[in-house]
Each structure stands twice: as structure tokens, then as C-alpha cells.
Amino acid sequence: MPNIQQYNFTYNDIHNTIRNTAKTIAETGFEPDFLLAIGGGGLIPARIMRTYINRPILIVSLSRYSDETGTAPSSQPIKLQWLETDIDLTGKKVLVIDEVDDERTTLEFTLQHLFESHPGAEFSAFVVHNKKKEKKGQLPEQLKHFFVGEEIEDYWINYAWDADNIDMFGK
Prior knowledge:
InterPro entries: PRTase-like, PRTase_dom. One of its GO terms (molecular function) is glycosyltransferase activity. This is Phosphoribosyltransferase domain-containing protein. This protein is about 25% helix and about 35% strand. It is an alpha/beta fold. The chain has a single domain (about 5-65, about 75-170), classed as Rossmann fold. The strands form two sheets. The protein has a six-stranded mixed β-sheet, with helices on both faces. A two-stranded parallel ribbon has the order 1-8. Strand 5 (about 95-100), helix 3 (about 105-115) and strand 6 form a beta-alpha-beta unit. Helix 1 (about 10-30) packs across helix 2. The chain starts with 5 loop residues before the first strand and ends in a 12-residue tail after the last strand.
């Protein structure tokens, strides 16, 4: 992507940011019973977080596109996969994980649905990167904690796990 400012985050960058945030989370005394990855971007960060907070990983998956080609943006995220109804989170603490808080619409949508479908659970959230910009969505008031690995400018992000050519991240 020529002529636009961008970040190229390596696996090492992400791992170090998550390790540092895991220390911060531990210092608050927050001990989740589950990690919940928002797929696709939250999957790898959730697995890395599990290295430091060894809890089971639950997964929800959303799409920001309303057609099969992935080219027509939807006004709100669309559920592709959600928690099975037999998972009882009553009295449990859950850390919801995503890679980036860009517009906050995905995080808001996910958290609202989690609070509605699991009213007896305590939810907190972690994003590896938070873009410093005005958000379209809001965090629910009942969110216990909001952890951010790194505050970044509103530039395009290239994550190593999205790369067609992983060698570009070594340069």
C-alpha cells in the first residue's frame, strides 16, 4: 500500500505487547475463568494470551461484510459463530480479546450480545492495539475492565498472520 502510513507488526511485536499486558492484567488482580477470542483477528492474540493466563479459549466469529464476496460492508457485524447455549458463564469472569479497536463497532456488538445472553457473567476486554481516533461504537457501562496493549495512530495495520509474504516482516 504505497503512500499511506502503516504499521507492520511482527509475531514478536504482538507477543511482547501481549506479555506486557498480561503483567498489567495480573497487577489489577483480575483473574478470568475464560478467554474469549473474537475471530478472526482475536484468535492468535487469544492463544498468545493463554501462554500467560492459562485459561480455556472460547470463540465467537463475526463478519463485517454482508455478501459472500466480502466486498459489501455491513452496517453492523453479522454473527457467523456464537457461543453454544450449553456453556454456562454464570458467575464466571471472561476476558474478550480482539486484535484492534478501530471503530469499536465489533467490540460493542460482541459485548452487548454477551451481556444480553450471559447476564450472570463478568466481562472485561483486551485489544492488542487501540487506534487513537473517535469511535463509532461505545463500550458497555457494565464492562469491568478495558485493557489496551498499545495505543497507536490511525494508520493501516499489517499483521504477520494476514501476510501473503511473511518475509516482508523481517525487513
